[in-house]
């Protein structure tokens, strides 16, 4: 599915005309459901090089990620995975 995120109005608009449009208000501070993911003892993340990108594409990606971070759509992760 393809979607467009309108950060200014906190809307996520799906490309499929039959899919419902919904409003997303960022990551909630309190969740109704808490969950954990149990890891296999001794398992480590797989190290893999990131996809190659042209410098202009990398800059655009960084700019978009920064905007999504500032507007609360995403948050930093401390997970090694």
Blueprint (SSEs and pairs):
Layout lengths: L2 E4 L4 E4 L7 E2 L31 H16 L11
Antiparallel strand pairs: 1-2, 2-3
Entry summary:
By secondary structure, this protein is an alpha+beta fold. The chain has one helix at 55-70, and strands spanning 3-6, 11-14, 22-23. The chain has a domain at 1-26 and 51-74.
Describe the structure.
The chain has a 3-stranded antiparallel beta sheet, with no helix packed on it. It has a domain at 1-26 and 51-74. It starts with a strand and ends in an 11-residue tail after the last helix. It is an alpha+beta fold and 81 residues long. It has one helix at residues 55-70, and strands at residues 3-6, 11-14, 22-23. The longest helix has 16 residues, at 55-70.
Straight-line distance between termini = 25 Å
Low-confidence stretches: none
Round the Cα radius of gyration to an integer and report it. Answer: 17 Å
The largest β sheet comes out as: 3 strands, antiparallel
How many distinct helices?
1
* CA-based shape: extended
* Percentage of residues in DSSP E strands: 5-15%
Structural class: alpha+beta
SSE string: EEEH
Number of strands: 3
Mean pLDDT: 77
Helix content: 10-25%
Q: Numbering strands along the chain, what is their spatial order in the largest sheet?
A: 1-2-3
């Amino acid at each position: 599915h393809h979607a467009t995120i309108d950060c200014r109005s906190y809307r996520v608009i799906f490309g499929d005309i039959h899919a419902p449009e919904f409003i997303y208000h960022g990551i909630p501070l309190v969740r109704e459901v808490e969950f954990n993911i149990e890891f296999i003892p001794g398992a480590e993340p797989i190290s893999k090089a990131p996809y190659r990108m042209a410098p202009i594409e990398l800059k655009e990606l960084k700019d978009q990620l920064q905007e999504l971070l500032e507007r609360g759509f995403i948050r930093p992760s401390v997970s090694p995975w």
